[in-house]
Amino acid sequence: MLKFTCCDAVQQFFSGGQAQVLRGITRGYERECLRVDASGRLARTVHPRALGSKLTHPWITTDYSEALLEFITPPSTDPEFPLRFLRDIHRFVAPNLQGEVMWASSMPCVLGADSEIPIADYGSSNAARFKYVYREGLSLRYGRKMQTIAGAHYNWSLPSEFWLALQDCCPALGRAEDYVSERYFGLIRNFLRYGWLVPYLFGASPALCESFLQGQASDLPVLAPGTRYGPYATSLRMSDLGYHNRAQANLVVSVNSLSEYTQALEAAIRTPDPFYAEIGVREGAHWKQLSANLLQTESEFYAAIRPKRTGAERPAKALSTRGVEYVEMRLFDLNPFVHIGITPEQASFADVLLLMCLFRDSPPITSREQAENDENKRRIVKYGRQPDLRLLAHNCEQPFRPLAHELFDDLQPFAEMLDAAYGSERYATTLQGLRQRIDQPDSTPSAQVLTGLRAHGGFASYTMELSQQHQRQLLAQPLDAPAEARFLASVQASWQEQQRLEAQDHGSFEDYVAHYYA
């Protein structure tokens, strides 16, 4: 039976009046995607100037590579806004790609040698150079191919009115921001326990282009010439083929409290690693990486979900000083069947899951339980649709489907809570539709991707076909004049801001780096 941290608190948010505070939930998306040329290979061109400055544009930038676009929606309390704005970004970008297209899949297109993947260049300022050196360090530590994988991140926060109402029912000693941080960390721990449901429901990367392997041996079978796949995989992006880190394998970052989390990250950015020290930090004036420590910055630590705080300080310092402001959920693959890579039910499901994780009892995670959580995620991303799949629950093997149905039962009250807040049936309806994927694994995006790959000759050709379809769809839906003008103004403003930063930058890069770590 579902256990709550405070039963009275849960009940009060089902009432029409009190449920209204949930309308203040703030959401936003970050969506990555590669630019590819007409042959389906990684674009070697620079980021189009017409899209603005990568360094300063608020909505359109790049992630690791010059060819890896990143789109950021402003935070909004309107549930419809993030995808609507994301669609507008795509409609602005598409006509400015000069014959290139946005790659539809999370796993990359045809890749050449690692050295051919261009690192994003942000300009001549110290801030721009810092971003470039950080990325060069990533390439030396992990290789560049790993940095071409794309995904979607969901940013989510609850309003101050909610926290005040919750604290009335579940009081605690200390500062209000400490209370909020404590509850967010409870949410994070529960997400690590139950987040395996996300790649099962929405994973869409069961296959990859053989060029991604760069000649390395793989146990993935061949689906078609040039295509490897996991017969029951849901998200190879989230497997050890995707995001992984040699040094981080032994890095323990506890989410049992804000202080434990920030102290672990602070230690990691100050603890030397022998392998990275052997690489070296500088050769004369050339910087190869920001430091030879376990992490160059806190952002290098990969996690399925992160506590975040906006501000100019380093992430760990901002969190320890002012507490958690929102969480960033990082498990969504791109859906290759839709032109913006994200479907509406993803946000609706995430809202319900995150709310349940917040209210549900969340004891500290032991090392044994962490190993169990990691193993469950590994099994789902590699074997999620396997008919006899079993997961671990309290150190016992359990069949996947009953566990998934039980979790949906636990989610149901929170769908009803959100529907009460918005006066809708959207959340309950979304949950009902997604639940069918448990007993019908062929209806999952990962299964549908494999069906398409088999029918269209493999990963590269099918994904390119989808990417070109999306480009035509976007070009057929141009922005209206006011929206176009707003984007053009943002581009101009971003270039002016980059010029301002470069003009006022008088200190040395060495001092800039030292100030960051101070």
Could you tell me the radius of gyration in angstroms? 23 Å
Number of contiguous helices: 18
N- to C-terminal separation? 48 Å
Unreliable spans are none
The helicity comes to 40-55%
Main beta sheet: 7 strands, antiparallel
Question: Class, according to the CATH hierarchy?
Answer: Alpha Beta
For the residues shown, what is the average pLDDT? 94
Fill in the CATH topology. Answer: Creatine Kinase, Chain A, domain 2
Write down how many β-strands occur, each being a DSSP E stretch of 2 or more residues. 14
Q: What best-fitting shape do the alpha-carbon axes yield?
A: globular
Computed structural class: alpha+beta
Task: Quote the beta fraction.
Answer: 5-15%
| Number of structural domains | 1
CATH architectural arrangement = 2-Layer Sandwich
